[in-house]
Specification:
Layout lengths: L1 H22 L14 H11 L13 E7 L2 E6 L6 H11 L5 H13 L12 H8 L2 H12 L5 E4 L6 H10 L4 E6 L2 H14 L7 E6 L5 H5 L5 E7 L14 H14 E11 L6 H13 L6 E6 L9 E7 L2
Parallel strand pairs: 3-4, 3-6, 4-5, 6-7
Antiparallel strand pairs: 1-2, 7-9, 8-9
Helix pairs in contact: 1-2, 7-8, 10-11
The structure holds S-adenosylmethionine.
Length: 319
């Protein structure tokens, strides 16, 4: 009896509050914040009064929205991007008024499974935001300037994730220069490229067991590369004894400015959590900030609510 009474109460509350909100295009699920005691109540409500729509809260999409004579019915799973929910809610807001369409909708409901996949896969921006990793953003941006056959530079190849990405991007006919001062890093990067790129699609990859400060001499050219990337700090998984240093990094960034061709991009991920990291970041930032606006556009991107995350500095050489 008590349970039945609670359900009735919940059903009435849903009819009075949630349905008009949905009809007005608002986010009903905004009341259902993770961990809120109402969640369970509404879950029971869906199961009982509205024919068991939601079976799990583990995933992150609004999965179904329908309209009928009793108003708007929602099924959702928590978290994730708001954009698909908004689109569905907006589309459904005018549905109750369209009485003529209700018959069709009812028919579709019988023909389709109640829980469907979202119509709109997450956009590149939504994917980037969900991962909240500037390393992903950086690679996404590199892909905007690199063409097949280009010459590019990985100034700190480390374990070779970025080198492998660049090798794939320029393909056969392209050239990648990879620098690191640690033999173990060069070997790891060589293996990463070998694993990621089939031999017949591989570019020329020059591994330089040398400081990136020697970039200009090692490449032997100026205005020849479309992209130079730095991922500063220490080799992940190492004893952290060898990290990039402000002095040699500044020399390398200056060399990179010469090596870049017009339209080329300089990308520098700075970490500030290790000793010397803040000074190195500030020195590089100051250098990029002083580049003449007639020849360069420089920028800084950081995740404000993740203080330990790296900071992405970019400089684009005007074409
Ligand atoms: C954060 S790691 C790079 C990670 C790498 N991009 C990856 O995908 O795995 C930084 C690397 O810079 C290297 N390094 C330090 N000083 C350097 C220098 N002067 N010239 C070139 N590389 C250097 C370190 O040995 C380390 O492997």
């Amino acid at each position: 009896m008590l349970r039945l009474g609670l359900r009735k109460l919940a059903a009435r509350r849903f009819q009075q509050e949630a349905v008009p909100m949905a009809a007005a295009g608002q986010l009903v699920e905004s009341r259902l914040v993770p961990g809120h005691p109402n969640n369970l109540q509404y879950q029971q409500l869906y199961r009982s009064s509205f024919s068991a729509i939601v079976t799990s809260l583990a995933c992150s999409q609004l999965v179904r929205l329908e309209s009928g004579c009793r108003g708007v019915r929602l099924a959702w799973r928590q978290c994730g991007s708001l954009a698909p929910r908004r689109r569905w809610l907006a589309a459904a807001a005018e549905a109750p008024a369209a009485a003529a369409r209700q018959q069709t909708i009812a028919q579709q409901q019988q023909e389709q499974p109640l829980i469907t996949e979202p119509e709109h896969p997450p956009s590149p921006l939504e994917r980037l935001m969900q991962h909240a990793r500037l390393t992903h953003l950086a690679q996404e941006l590199w892909g905007q300037v690199v063409r097949r056959g280009d010459t590019v530079v990985d100034a700190t190849c480390g374990n070779g994730h970025d080198t492998a990405y660049l090798a794939q991007a320029v393909g056969s006919g392209g050239t990648v220069h990879a620098f690191d001062v640690q033999p173990a890093a060069i070997e790891a990067a060589r293996a990463a490229v070998g694993a990621a790129v089939p031999a017949d699609q591989a570019p020329e990859v020059h591994f330089h067991l040398a400081s990136h400060a020697e970039m200009r001499e090692r490449l032997g050219c100026t205005a020849c590369a479309s992209l130079v990337v730095f991922n500063l700090g220490y080799l992940p998984g190492s004893d952290k004894a060898t990290t990039t240093q402000a002095g040699s990094t500044l020399a390398a960034v200056q060399a990179a400015c010469d090596v870049l061709k017009p339209g080329g991009l300089l990308s520098i991920l700075c970490y500030t959590g290790h000793p010397g990291g803040v000074e190195e970041y500030e020195a590089v930032r100051a250098l990029l900030g002083q580049l003449p606006p007639s020849g360069w556009v420089s920028s800084e991107t950081r995740l404000l609510n993740r203080p330990a995350a790296p900071i992405l500095l970019l400089a684009w050489k005007r074409g």
